[in-house]
């Protein structure tokens, strides 16, 4: 029997792959961003994550929110460390109107924490600017793999009849990410 996580992984695979092929994510994956490109990456992430986290707080417990819905704060701190006072980019994100949709959105946000761990390892540790602005890509530190497993257990408990709604939400978030990262003009 296929787990719901595996089902989501399969249904979002083409969007995930397309996202990884965007110019900015290729630069980030290579570990060679300039300071300006790193700022663009963080700004694009913030434009998506801030409105999604604001919506997710309406569907999650205070405890979950305090632990998991803090990525926009990390992004703001990193951008400030880079001297970025630019206005928040606007991103078109899907609306969240049910617990199932909230879970689908979090599949994308929580799943990205594993990729962020890899990204941090690839970035030049001797680059002082990047080191000072790495809170977001540090995610949960050593707790990241365990936090992902806790989330996956929660994900796999979703009612079968709610899965299509969660799946559609995950695809919508990946589509929003793809749109946002495809429109970034690399500096």
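Q: What amino acid sequence fits the structure above?
A:
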């Amino acid at each position: 029997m296929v787990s719901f996580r595996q089902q989501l992984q399969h249904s979002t695979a083409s969007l995930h792959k397309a996202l990884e092929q965007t110019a900015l994510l290729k630069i980030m994956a290579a570990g060679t961003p300039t300071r300006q490109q790193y700022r663009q990456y963080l700004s694009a992430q913030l434009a998506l994550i801030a409105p999604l986290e604001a919506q997710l707080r309406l569907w999650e417990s205070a405890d979950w929110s305090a632990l998991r819905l803090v990525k926009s704060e990390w992004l703001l701190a990193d951008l400030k460390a880079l001297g970025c006072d630019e206005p928040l980019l606007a991103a078109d994100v899907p609306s969240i109107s049910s617990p199932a949709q909230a879970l689908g959105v979090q599949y994308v946000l929580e799943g990205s924490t594993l990729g962020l761990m890899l990204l941090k390892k690839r970035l030049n540790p001797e680059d002082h600017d990047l080191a000072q602005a790495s809170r977001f890509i540090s995610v949960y530190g050593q707790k990241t793999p365990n936090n992902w497993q806790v989330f996956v257990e929660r994900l796999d408990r979703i009612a079968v009849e709610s899965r299509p709604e969660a799946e559609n939400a995950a695809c919508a978030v990946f589509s929003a990410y793809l749109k946002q990262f495809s429109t970034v003009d690399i500096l």
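Q: And what stands out in the fold?
A: The chain has a mean pLDDT of 92.
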